TrEMBL record:
One of its GO terms (cellular component) is cytoplasm. Pathway: Amino-acid biosynthesis; L-arginine biosynthesis; L-arginine from L-ornithine and carbamoyl phosphate: step 2/3. Homotetramer. InterPro entries: Arginosuc_syn_C, Arginosuc_syn_N, Arginosuc_synth, Arginosuc_synth_CS, Arginosuc_synth_type_1_subfam, AS_cat/multimer_dom_body, Rossmann-like_a/b/a_fold. This is Argininosuccinate synthase. It comes from Gloeomargarita lithophora Alchichica-D10. HAMAP family: Arg_succ_synth_type1 (MF_00005). The gene is argG.
Amino acid sequence: MGRAQKVVLAYSGGVDTTVCIPYLRQEWGVEEVITLAVDVGQGVSLATAELAETETRRQQELEAIRTKALAAGATVSLVKDVRAEFVRDYALPAIQANALYEGRYPLSTALARPLIAQLLVAVAEEYGADGVAHGCTGKGNDQVRFDVSIAALNPQLKVLAPAREWGMSREQTMAYGERFGLTFPVKKSSPYSIDSNLLGQSIEAGPLEDPWFEPPEEIYTLTQSVTQAPDQPEYVTVEFRQGQPVGLNGENLAAVTLVEQLNVLAGRHGVGRIDMIENRLVGIKSREIYEVPGLLVLITAHQALESMTLTRDVSHYKRGIEETYAQLVYNGLWFSPLKAALDAFIQQTQERVTGSVRLRLFKGTAVVVGRQSPDSLYDPNLATYTEADQFDHRAAEGFIYVWGLPVRVWSQVGQRLP
């Protein structure tokens, strides 16, 4: 396959994607590089999330990224704010699916990748580009998510991954960029690799590669240490409509605002830290640290509401679907036929998942302490052990006889065998 002539590059403003611009043009003969910076809510911390100037700072940072790409040789530099689409089209379906990879990771980073891929394809088609590019390395999950998603959306586009092939260290990469007039103010970078968005952040590399090493407090920016968290619990109530969070503490909120506010509330109490050894798609194990305060609270609350509103058989069957769903998202198969089929099943299950869940936030925990729903299948007159009990206890004997009949027959036959 020949090299592309006009390429849309997924651009973050970091060293690797900035160096990709001259590298694509000089080494691979790309005539035109169009950069696309996607705003999915990255860059927010617990310290800044409540400040009025947060949005102004965000716009300033995005404009700096846009101009940086032009200075590096991009012919067009685009910035798109897709926070609303990110939550509506990607986060909310994952919450409805209770998607937790390997039972723990709520896919905060993975969920952004198919959206970025979708935008890369759209911009490539709009500008008549014949290729798209990203800055992923050769042993991570993101390269798979980008490449497979792009192929699913437009298999005619060429996918270029310079950082997967150039074989340069970070120092060599910066030196290469300096040959073309690029400057990198910070020569000594953090030992950690951090990816953040509105749903949370992932932290890896550096000293964290030692599974015995305790993560230092300095890596956390969305959650407060439990030692510094308030000494009194705080209660929050999340309202759901058909499986989607629509309100917080009695106030109807847009999805983005709800996630932002819950990030602050839960993060202040140290909720949402995950330290796990994770099985990457490429076959290696990786130590990952995640901060996902709001997202983890929403999934916890959603699970509690489903326990009241789904029948037993649907609830049990959905658990297997949830595991498969999480694997598909993690493995870059958001746009696959199986994912679409599971979406249809999950949406059907959410028709009556409406109600409120009350949680207690305290010292790193988010505990469900109450739930209510107009569609609740919990009947206190059947569950109670008081004199208000309306359950027909006499029916139990016949039920047990029929239920246990296969086991009884099996046992009787077994006793006749030598």
